[in-house]
Amino acid sequence: MKILITGCNGQLGTAMRWLSAEHSGYEYIWTDIDNLDLTDREAVKSLVEKEKVDIIVNCAAFTNVDGAEQNETAARMVNSTAVENLALTGRRIIHISTDYVFSGEGFLPYKESDTPQPRTVYGRTKLEGEEKLHQLCPDAIIIRTAWLYSPVGKNFVKTMLNAAEVREELKVVYDQIGTPTYAVDLARVIYAFIGQAEWKSGIYHFTNEGVCSWYDFTVEILRQARLLTSANRFKAKVLPIRSEEYQYATPRPHYSVLDKKKIKQTLSIDIPYWTDSLNECLVKLLNER
Ligand SMILES: NC(=O)c1ccc[n+]([C@@H]2O[C@H](COP(=O)([O-])OP(=O)(O)OC[C@H]3O[C@@H](n4cnc5c(N)ncnc54)[C@H](OP(=O)(O)O)[C@@H]3O)[C@@H](O)[C@H]2O)c1
User: Fold this and answer.
1) Cβ 143 vs Cβ 175: under 8 Å
2) What pLDDT, on the 0 to 100 scale, is given for residue 289?
3) What pTM value is reported for the model?
4) 217 in a domain, yes or no?
């Protein structure tokens, strides 16, 4: 079986690459924007046909939430048009979407059947990508995730570690609630879908287990980082603030918790608790710094 992984240099794409060593029974084609721009419909079609791809795992996206507000066209090209281009190939697709398709105004974990109501360009364009898949590729697997981080790329964990090394204090919001997701855990789930005897199409929600605020997340990042390194390296004090005290260019969801019952039942998996996965990431990240 031949698998095309797009966006392979991003957080999730890199995690897929790391885990491919444990899944040597497949053939892989690794692409990112430098060798396959997904907005180029002909290039996508031609590569998929030439290489006789069986499954596409789409890890590519326009993920900059504030950047999407400023450049809606570019965000739509990657989050929607590119997804359409992939869908038009007629291949099986595993696509990644986001908690931003919801309003973030709820107070119970979002289920797959809840009505999307995006409040940002990023969320709207990601929802459009989902809709393209529903129309053109109804057997696609769509996995919505949230608060993704990994040892590579730009993410909250790395931003907080860098800031804690040079600043005295970090003010972090405590009224936005969600669940961090380690990209390697998400990649494990993607491989689990590929390995199923039967193709399990549909929408699924996946994050790590547990719930926290960005403030709690930061406290735990620094607590673990101090245990793994010299105690005075990440010295900043963490102070809780409300969202209205932070100058966001784009509104952030107050509640991003996703209900994971469906994916747990479908794949018969236990999902790691977020602090355990954070530890796995920090061990890797801090050893490499
Ligand atoms: N990051 C999060 O917190 C988060 C939360 C919820 C859901 N998600 C979703 O999870 C998925 C993986 O996210 P991630 O954090 O791994 O993303 P990422 O690190 O930003 O990686 C995305 C990759 O896609 C590439 N790309 C951009 N435009 C492309 C194009 N036209 N053709 C081909 N490749 C292109 C990017 O290249 P450049 O870097 O050169 O642009 C990058 O290598 C995405 O679908 C995202 O929407 C992410």
Assistant:
1) no
2) 64
3) 0.98
4) no
